[in-house]
Structure formats: C-alpha cells, structure tokens
Amino acid sequence: MVIPIIVLLILVLGRRKKAGILTKMRLNLTMKYEKIRIVIIVVSLVLLCIALLGPQKLTGTMEVKRERLDIYVLLDTSKSMLVEDTLPNRLEREKQIVHHILASLDGDRIGFIPFSSSAYIQMPLTDDYNMAKMFLDVVDTDMIGGGGSDVGKAIKLAYDSFERTTLGDKVILIISDGEEHDKESEEALKAIMDDQLKVYAIGVGTSEGGLIPIYNETGQVTDYKKDKNGNPVMSKLNDATLKGLAKIGHGAYYASTMDAHEVNAFLSSIASLKKDGNTTKEINQYQQLYPYFLGMGLSLFLIAYLVPVRRQKI
C-alpha cells in the first residue's frame, strides 16, 4: 500500500515540476516576443521620421531657358538719409523699398551700388535674392567716407558693369533724397545713354524735410549736423534732379509712399521692357525618396500591431 502512494506522489510532483518549467519557458518566449515588437516599433518610427524630412537623391541637371532683366539699384548712403521725415528714416525706407522689389522679382538679376562721395559695387548682379537681402540689410551711412552724393559716379559704374553681350534692356534704379546732386550727374548720364539703358528714380523724403541726426556709439542722438555758421542743417527732398535723370534715362520718377505704390509702379513699368531671352540656368533634378521610407515605416508599424503576441497566464 505504501509503494503505490509513493509512486503517486512522485508522479504528481514530477507533473507539477514539468508544468512549472513549461510556464517559465512560455513566459520567456512571451518576453522575447515583446522585445522584438518594441524593436520593430522603434525602427518604424525612425523610418517615418526620415520620411518627414523629405529625403531626395540628385539624379541630374537640366538647362532651362529664361528671360531676364539686369537691374542695378543705386543706394544713397549719405548722412542726409538718416533724416526721419520718412519713418523710420530715409535710409530704412530705402531698404524697405528694395525688399519689396526683391519679393516681386522672378529670374531677373539685381545688384547694389551704394554711393555718397564715391560709389562701389557692393553686390554684383545676381538672381540669388536671399543673398541680396543679406547684403541689403548691412547697408548704412558709414559704408563710404566723405560727404555729398555723387550719383554721377554711381551711374557710370553701373553702366560699365552691365554685360555688353546682353540682348535685353538694362535698368538703373536710383533711390535717393536728391540732395547735393548737380548737373554733372545729368551730363554723366547723357554721355553713356543708349537705347538699351533705362533709368528710374524713387525720391525718399519730404519737401518739409528734417534735421540730420548725429549718433553716438550706443545709437543715441547727441546732436544735429550744423553748417559753417553753427546753424542746424535742414535736409529736404530735392526731386527736381531725380526727375531730370529719369527723363534723360527714358524712365520715370516716383515719390516714395508708405503703401509701396512706387514699387508697384516701377515693377509695372519694367515689365514691358525687353528681356534677354538667350540666358539659361541649370536646375538640379531630384528623385523623392520619402515614399520608400514611408512605406517601410508603415509596414513595420502594422506588423508590430497586427501580428498577435501570445500571452500565457501564469
């Protein structure tokens, strides 16, 4: 009687031990599946993030024929451009005008020539408008030493810098308060005028004018410019010279306004000019790769959540 009981106990204990081993094995297998599932989810999320970045592959280049105008903007940087009769001041208004023009150009090239007592090419002709904005933002009245506004030098420099092979019209835009411009600038323009050259002018400032501020190193106004007798100098818009230059240059004169009316008028006028149609530009061609990453990411995501993971009760 004792032997059968012992045998029965051995069988029961053996069965329980076997069941415990199987349960442990199933638990380990379940944990292994969960780890694999987590890895799949992480990989799928990485692939989806890469897809959001819009990866591209350069496949080649293509030459596109384009029509364009070449435009040199002559920027007055004399001290009178600091007068605040046009808010925030004439210089900043001048820069705002050019920013409006840049926002409307499409394929035309633009260059900058600051001028006061002399002139120089700050930025050659380019169709990189983002670079042009950076050059424009650093324009100030300390770029050129000396006093006065010799726009004649700037006009000649712009004319000499245009490509002679271009078949389109060449545009010079003068933005200035017109002060200290003399008849020599008109004579300089007459000497270089040809059928392809068009000269426009935008007057910045008012007929009432204002005082020319003098700033310290911290940007505070400490005084105002005075004449040889010690009297404050009143700077006013002199549109007569600017109108004269525009007339000689077969262009037009516009007065600066706060609603950018002069910009729209200028752009409308140059839209009818003859453009150079013999120019080409290389455009890079790309293959979009994001669909592949998106497809792989979504597939792994579905695999992770649609394939059931067996969970055993302990």
From TrEMBL:
Keyword Heme (UniProt): no
Transmembrane segments: 35-53, 289-307
Name of the protein in its database record: VWA domain-containing protein
Species lineage: Bacteria, Bacillati, Bacillota, Clostridia, Lachnospirales
Database matches in InterPro entries: UPF0353/GerABKA_families, VWF_A, vWFA_dom_sf
Domain VWFA, first and last residues per copy: 70-270
Keywords, sorted A to Z: Cell membrane, Membrane, Transmembrane, Transmembrane helix
Listed PANTHER family: LEUCINE ZIPPER PROTEIN 4 (PTHR22550:SF5), SPORE GERMINATION PROTEIN (PTHR22550)
UniProt cross-references to Pfam families, sorted A to Z: VWA
Biological source species: Vallitalea pronyensis
Domain of life: Bacteria
